[in-house]
Amino acid sequence: MDPVRNPYAPGAGQRPPELAGRDKQLDAFDVVLERVARSRPERSVMLTGLRGVGKTVLLNQLRSAAVSRGWGTGKIEARPDQELRRPLSSALHMAIRAIASAHRDPERVDDFLGVLKAFALRASADKGMRERWQPGIDVPAVTGRADSGDIEIDLVELLLDASSLARDVGVGLAIFIDEMQDIGPADISAICGACHELSQDGAPLIVVGAGLPHLPAVLSASKSYSERLFSYHRIDRLDRDAADQALIAPAEREDVKFTDQALDALYTAADGYPYFVQAYGKATWDLAPESPITAEDVRVAAPTAEEELAVGFFGSRYERATPAEREYMRAMADLSGDDGPVATSAVATELARKPASLSPARDGLIKKGLIYSAERGTIGFTVPHFGRYLRSQTD
């Protein structure tokens, strides 16, 4: 098969050639956009799931849907230990620029940009740094609004002002936040508080976040009402029909077919995870001699796909862990069966250690995004099949 024509695209956040199995989330977001357009109150949206299930791809698709309706949008990727002010300011600046030309009062837009600049500059406690760093806004900073230094107060004022501009134009604003579980506690609390105020005001501004499975717990720990504040969508593996569609549709556009047995083998190998579907599909295409692609082609290609996953998807994460953290993860893998959450007490028993002595390793892995706290007293891998990979490394 011609590798140049290979339609499959495994990659971090890279849109697959066929976005299968996500119609429910796309349709629900269309309803959100339409309700906001009609000045109806609507909740912000949170996507949660393991790595490799396509949260970032879906987040980008939702953003495209908002842009197609004339909304102003901006996107950030949260990072641990990074304050929210500057990246959020850049995202909101992008969103406002998208709708500014439609506003009938340029002075109002400039006034808001002055508030936005003041909000952004408040990020640094060092006066010299504030004077040197500029957020790309060519108007003077306005004092007395969104610049108190209290992020919860400032964010509410900033987003209410931004939504007022959008209301004037008759469109909405949406801020998209990837890796949202990495936002610090104070900033998460501010986002929840701001979304609460926006919802009560019926403001045409929503936050669309994506994060690991414990994101709802992070939000709930910040504000108890967050369970009712957001619309949560759990993004999981694809069912059989959707996984087949993700493979068949791109191949048919290249006049290539799969046998039913090949599709059986591919679903077994990929287990429905979108990233794995693309990885196995790509390797099988490259090694198959002709159409239709057969189960034997899948069998021959599987080691190539597994080797690429071992290096790029699993190995790159494993290499980030310290020896103590690797020991902790191996114990999790031995206990988890097939990647299911395990009790932290069971890991301590497996390693014959006191739970408190393992806290640094556990906390380090959580901070690196390799494991997450599934429920109180339990932990799980953020990457599907990571336990299987670790067991293969220690056999």
TrEMBL record:
SUPFAM superfamilies named among the record's database cross-references: P-loop containing nucleoside triphosphate hydrolases
InterPro entries according to UniProt: AAA_16 (IPR041664), Cyt_c-like_dom (IPR009056), P-loop_NTPase (IPR027417)
UniProt entry keywords in alphabetical sequence: ATP-binding, Heme, Iron, Metal-binding, Nucleotide-binding
Keyword Ribosomal protein: no
Segments for region (Disordered): 1-23
GO MF term list: ATP binding; electron transfer activity; heme binding; metal ion binding
Signal peptide: none
The keyword Transmembrane helix belongs to this UniProt entry's keyword annotation: no
Domain of life: Bacteria
Domain Cytochrome c positions: 167-333
Protein name: ATP-binding protein
